[in-house]
Specification:
17% strand; 9 strands; alpha/beta; 3-stranded antiparallel sheet; 6-stranded parallel sheet; binds adenosine-5-diphosphoribose; single chain
């Protein structure tokens, strides 16, 4: 196949070597905070200050973080591969963009964006968001982090599913395969005959569904995989 169409899904593991915590590793974010308190609409309604503070802390950390060789390799692939490359991330940091990737599909939202719960307007989030900030469009005090919380619908699913239906290669990088619909992308890719590869530090929940696995740190495995694709 001359210029295969590639769909990539990244998770928290690709940003681990940039110092950003993952969710389900030892001591991860979900060991420090209750999901129902900081990552659900009900938690936000119950205690908006706790939720806004949780994302302010992660936004400040992400702001300081530097992309690692995994992010840089994917930016190189997007720039140099002659076939289509769709980079989908579950991550809410901007490290793919800082590494030079454009058109990154943030299916779980992003720390850099704010959302109006009243009118749906989006704008660049301030580094430090306050509770009840006014929406620049409708002026209501209904600003919230533009993050897809548990129980909400992930973004850009039509575009992702359309790309998966045409994929020749699907790669999952740094994700534990615990959260759907992202964890189901490998089955969709397999169904259309795509080659599938997992690059993860530990085997994910869905490792058995992948044709190929490249265990190890993303800064090493992703750079090697991109070399193999570009020199293939
Ligand atoms: N290189 C590669 N993989 C790594 C590295 C590394 N340096 N460090 C950790 N990993 C792997 C772990 O083995 C784990 O399988 O990254 C994975 C991280 O898994 P999770 O913490 O579950 O993160 P993720 O899969 O992205 O979570 C998905 O769950 O809580 C929600 O919305 C949140 O987007 C998140 C979603």
């Amino acid at each position: 196949m001359t210029h295969p169409s590639i769909v990539i899904l990244t998770g928290a593991g690709i940003s681990a070597e940039s110092g950003l915590g993952t969710f389900r590793d030892e001591g991860g974010l979900w060991a420090q905070h209750r999901i129902e308190d900081v990552a659900t609409p009900e938690g936000f309604a119950r205690n908006p200050a706790l939720v806004v503070d949780f994302y302010n802390k992660r936004r400040a950390q992400a702001h300081e973080a530097v992309p690692n060789a995994g992010h840089t390799a994917l930016a190189r692939l997007k720039a140099e591969h002659k076939g289509e490359v769709l980079l989908v991330t579950q991550n809410v940091d901007s490290l793919h963009e800082k590494a030079g990737s454009t058109d990154v599909v943030h299916m779980h939202g992003e720390l850099a964006s704010a959302l109006c719960a009243n009118c749906g307007h989006r704008w660049n989030a301030p580094l430090h968001m306050e509770v009840g900030e006014a929406c620049p469009a409708c002026a209501q005090p209904t600003a919230r982090p533009d993050i897809v919380w548990f129980g909400e619908i992930p973004y850009h699913m039509e575009r992702i599913e359309e790309a998966l239906s045409r994929a020749d290669i699907f790669a999952a990088i740094g994700t534990s395969g615990n959260v759907y619909p992202a964890a189901g992308f490998v089955q969709m890719a397999t169904y259309v005959g795509a080659r599938t590869v997992e690059m993860n530090l530990d085997p994910s929940e869905t490792v058995a569904l992948f044709e190929e696995t490249r265990p190890g740190k993303a800064s090493v495995t992703v750079a090697q995989w991109v070399d193999d694709i570009l020199n293939g």
